[in-house]
Structures are given as structure tokens and as C-alpha cells.
Write a structure and sequence with these properties.
CATH architecture: 3-Layer(aba) Sandwich
Helix content: 25-40%
Structural class: alpha/beta
Mean pLDDT: 94
Distance between the termini: 19 Å
Strand order of the largest sheet: 1-2-4-3-5-6-7-8
CATH superfamily: Alpha/Beta hydrolase fold, catalytic domain
Length: 238
């Protein structure tokens, strides 16, 4: 059963969904740009079999607040405060695309809070050719001002992000989407190489791996999360 909840984080209300056994190790899911917690619906049942799964809406997304103040660093801080507010110590963390950037920023700055890290088709933080995003028609489930605010950070990442990948201590699995993804796969492979203990698997279905191949995604992720369970025990929810 999925439970819908809300938490106040430094004056920003974040909504999230929680499922799985209350006493199971915590697993936090961080969605891509323009998505929200519902994006994980296909894979949550399998992941929640032996995990307490928390899928949150980042600021500017879904039912969380749209405060008008946006950056990837603020999103990282929100996730950290989210863990603190819920009394979660060290967690397993999955991030897709932009959510993967937020996830590895957290793992860089607060390595003690991330036991295992899964990065789904996440680009290496290197400069890329800037493009002008076009607003989709109709009502949006995310704040378009958020897209305009973070897009420059995606195009011209802080050079320290690349340098500090070596500071990630979490066991890391990088799941690549293969040649059908718009994300350059040589960069995804470089991301995996730069993280100590990181390794990569490819599920060649494109960028939206957990949508296009949910069974394959949950299989590789579940096996990875169970690896060395006793060596890197995740903190349990009080």
C-alpha cells in the first residue's frame, strides 16, 4: 500500500509517497526533470518488497511547493533535510537523470548518509552545447521557471562536481540506457569510472530505463542493493 505524506523542510513543503515494510532499510527515489513521485509507480512494488521506499517530489515538481527559488544545490539540501526530518540516517539512494545529479551531489557532500547509490542514465558533469528549452503547451505538473533556472547548471556544470566524484564512498551502480538514449553513453561510462567502487550495467532501451524495462531495471537494482548487505547496513526507520 502506498501512503501519501507531506513534510516541511526549511519552510518548503515536500510531498512524498512511502511504501514497504516500516522496519525495512530505507530506499529513497529521486525523479528526473519535470517528473514527480508517480514516475516510479511501475517499479515501486518490486523495490518495496524488502525496502521502505520513499519517493519524493523535488521542489518545483508535482505537489511539492513551487517557491520560485531553484538550483541543484537547493534540491540536494532539500533531500538532506528530508532525510533528517524523517529521522533517516544512512539510506540507499536511486536517482534518474537530473535526480541522479542531485543524488551524487548528496553522496559527495555527505558520504555518511548514502550506503548504496544507483544512478540511472546520468550524464557526467561536463559542459555541453547550450540549447533553449521550449515550454510545452498546456498546464504543467512542474514549474517552468525551475527548468529555466537549472538548465544552465546542466549545460555548464560546476567543475567541482566532476572533481568530487572521487569522494563518493557509497557502493555505486550506474545503469546506462545504451545507444537509444539521448545522453552520451561515453559520459555515463566515465561517470561510473570516476566513482570509486562504481560499476556500470547497460539496459539498451533508452533514457527511460525504469519505464521501458521495469523488470530488468528492478532485477539489477535489487541484486545490487542486496550485495554486501551486512557490510554496509542501511539505517532503519525509528
Amino acid at each position: 500500500m502506498v501512503d501519501h505524506r507531506l513534510v516541511d523542510v526549511r519552510g518548503i513543503r515536500l510531498t512524498y509517497r512511502v511504501s514497504g515494510p516500516p522496519d525495512a532499510p530505507p530506499l529513497v527515489l529521486v525523479h528526473a526533470l519535470g517528473e514527480n513521485a508517480t514516475d516510479w509507480e511501475q517499479v515501486v512494488p518490486a523495490l518495496a518488497y524488502n525496502r521502505r521506499v520513499y519517493a519524493l517530489d523535488l521542489r518545483g515538481h508535482g505537489r511539492s511547493d513551487w517557491p520560485g527559488d531553484y538550483s541543484l544545490e537547493l534540491m540536494r539540501a532539500d533531500v538532506l533535510q528530508f532525510l533528517d526530518a524523517l529521522g533517516l540516517g544512512s539510506v540507499d539512494l536511486i536517482g534518474h537523470s537530473l535526480g541522479g545529479i542531485v543524488a551524487y551531489l548528496l553522496a559527495q557532500d555527505h558520504p555518511q548518509r548514502v550506503s548504496r547509490l544507483v544512478l540511472e542514465d546520468v550524464p557526467v558533469p561536463r559542459p555541453r552545447e547550450p540549447t533553449t528549452p521550449t515550454r510545452p503547451d498546456g498546464d504543467l505538473t512542474f514549474d517552468w521557471e525551475m527548468v529555466l533556472a537549472v538548465r544552465p547548471q546542466l549545460d555548464q556544470p560546476d567543475p567541482r562536481w566532476l572533481e568530487r566524484l572521487s569522494q563518493i564512498t557509497a557502493e555505486t551502480l550506474v545503469v546506462a540506457g545504451g545507444p537509444r538514449s539521448h545522453v552520451p553513453q561515453d559520459g555515463v561510462a566515465e561517470l561510473a569510472r570516476r566513482i570509486p567502487g562504481g560499476h556500470m550495467v547497460t539496459i539498451p532501451v533508452g533514457h527511460l530505463i525504469h519505464h521501458a524495462a521495469p523488470e530488468a531495471f528492478t532485477e539489477v537494482v535489487t541484486v545490487f542493493l542486496l550485495t554486501e548487505e551486512n557490510v554496509h547496513p542501511a539505517a532503519r526507520q525509528p
